[in-house]
Amino acid sequence: MQDALNAQVLMEAQSSQAYLAMGSWAEIQPGLKGVTQFFFRHSEEERMHMLKLIHYINERGGFAVVPALEKPVLTFVSLKSAFDQLYKHEVKVSESINNLVEIARELKDYATDHFLQWYVLEQMEEEKLARDCNDKLELIGDDKSGLYLFDRDIMTLDQS
């Protein structure tokens, strides 16, 4: 279980790095202040998910390993491609969390199963948010005024 949880620590750390890179890319694009804040906020949120796992592993008598990270994708051909990547990544994280739950149940590690339920719910929210953003960008297409409104509105999309 510890090895599987440490693999999730890596995934959460890579998520944080990926969203940090997306935020840096968005920050140099004209007029994407809201999108920039969105990506930076999500980078920090993923870091907090990683820390929550690290604390859990250590508190349960294990040893949480701080992982080395691969360089994330740094540039994107469009805002839509960045959000497509975000959605695909969130689906991958959800699959990983579901796998952890399965392992915990196979091991009858009910404490870890209970702990992971927070991540299950979090991933449902993350996937929905990413899907909603992609749907909106699909509707907008190349409309600059739509992109302006998207950028403004995204700052309040996930203020939960």
Describe what is shown at a glance.
The protein is 79% helix and 0% strand.
Structural description of this entry:
- By secondary structure, the chain is mainly alpha-helical.
- It has one domain (2-157): Ferritin, core subunit, four-helix bundle (Ferritin, Up-down Bundle).
- 79% of the residues lie in helices and 0% in strands.
- It is built from five helices and no strands.
- The protein has helices at 2-27, 33-59, 79-106, 110-140, 144-157.
- The model has no long low-confidence stretch (mean pLDDT 95).
- Fe cation binds at residues 12, 46, 49, 90, 123.
- It is found in: Cytoplasm.
Q: Which properties best describe this structure?
A:
single chain; 160 residues; mainly alpha; Ferritin; 5 helices
Topology record:
Layout: H1 2-27, H2 33-59, H3 79-106, H4 110-140, H5 144-157
Helix pairs in contact: 1-2, 1-3, 2-5, 3-4, 4-5
CATH homologous superfamily grouping: Ferritin, core subunit, four-helix bundle
Mean pLDDT score: 95
Percent range of helical residues: over 70%
Radius of gyration: 17 Å
Strand content: under 5%
Task: Kindly report how far apart the N and C termini lie.
Answer: 31 Å
CATH topology category name: Ferritin
**Low-confidence residue ranges:** none
Beta-strand segment tally = 0
The CATH class is identified as Mainly Alpha
Query: Secondary-structure element sequence?
Result: HHHHH
> What's the overall geometry?
elongated
The domain tally reads 1
- Most strands sheet: none
Structural class: mainly alpha
CATH architecture: Up-down Bundle
Counted by DSSP, the helix tally is 5
Protein name: Ferritin
Domain Ferritin-like diiron: 1-141
Family: Belongs to the ferritin family. Prokaryotic subfamily.
Organism: Chitinophaga costaii
